[in-house]
Amino acid sequence: MSAPITHYPGQLIMSDAQDMPEVSLDHIELNERPLIVCDVDEVVLEFLTPFRGFIQSQGYELLARSFKLHGNVVHAGTSEVLREDIVDDLLEAFFIAQGDWQFPATGVSEALTALSDHADIVFLTAMAPRHETLRRALLDRFGLHYPLVATEGAKGPVVQRLHRLRKQPVVFVDDILRNLRSVREHVPDCLIIHIMANAHFRVFLPPLDAGMTSAADWPEAARMIQAHFRV
Ligand SMILES: [Mg+2]
User: Fold this and answer.
1) How far, in Å, is the centroid of ligand 1 from the Cα of 137?
2) Tens digit of pLDDT for each residue in 6-38?
3) How confident is the model at residue 5 (pLDDT cuts 50, 70, 90)?
């Protein structure tokens, strides 16, 4: 088994995914108010820290030495780098077991609860649809009942379809520069916020583009979003 790795796309491991079938948004109903679209892994749920714990339980280690997974997963004993297809299999196994490992990023529940008084919130996760049911259940367990869209395709076109020609402000939050750029390209008036839970890997993030903003944590992101809505 070798699953396509679009799930945690450290830059060198993201498939292009441009010709994916269009994802269904039939279950999303938006009100006439601002919209916040949030990535899930490393933004709403911790990913890298639990993934590191998961692979440690199997005798491997994740080294924070560049902004990607492939090449940074090693055998704990020998430090030998794992083949990419084995890392792919570990990711697939992790997402099947995600309910035992992943947990909300610090402050996210409080921030989204406060923001949801004034805005609609949609989770946009870069995940194969086969894992969506497990992810939905995990988010619900933490009280994060906001609607979820799972796609392996580019995120910009999905945010564009959600926002359409609405006049209300729109915000997009993600940890991967490529996703931020995709949304910037398709929804130029969107406030683009980078947030990433894991500080060990965040230091390897390439510089953001002009006009994109970075939040250190959810309380800061919430202040940025509220300030944007007041404009
Ligand atoms: Mg992410």
Assistant:
1) 18
2) 334 333 233 344 556 789 999 999 999 999 999
3) very low
Ligand 1 mean position, distance from CA 163 (Å) = 20
Q: Enter the CATH code of domain 22-46+103-230.
A: 3.40.50.1000
pLDDT, tens digit, for every residue of 50-80?
999 999 999 999 999 999 999 999 999 999 9
- Distance (angstroms) between ligand 1 centre and the Cα of 40 equals 6
How much distance in Å is there from the Cα of 113 to the middle of ligand 1?
20
Residue 199 and residue 66: Cα distance in Å, rounded?
Answer: 12
Q: Measure 80 CA to ligand 1 centroid, in angstroms.
A: 27
Q: Considering the chain, tell me which residue range(s) the CATH 3.40.50.1000 domain(s) occupy.
A: 22-46+103-230
Helical (H) or strand (E) element with 35: strand 35-38
- Separation between Cα atoms, residue 142 and residue 24, nearest integer Å: 24
Q: How far is the CA of 168 from the centre of ligand 1 (A)?
A: 25
- Coil, helix or strand at residue 171: strand
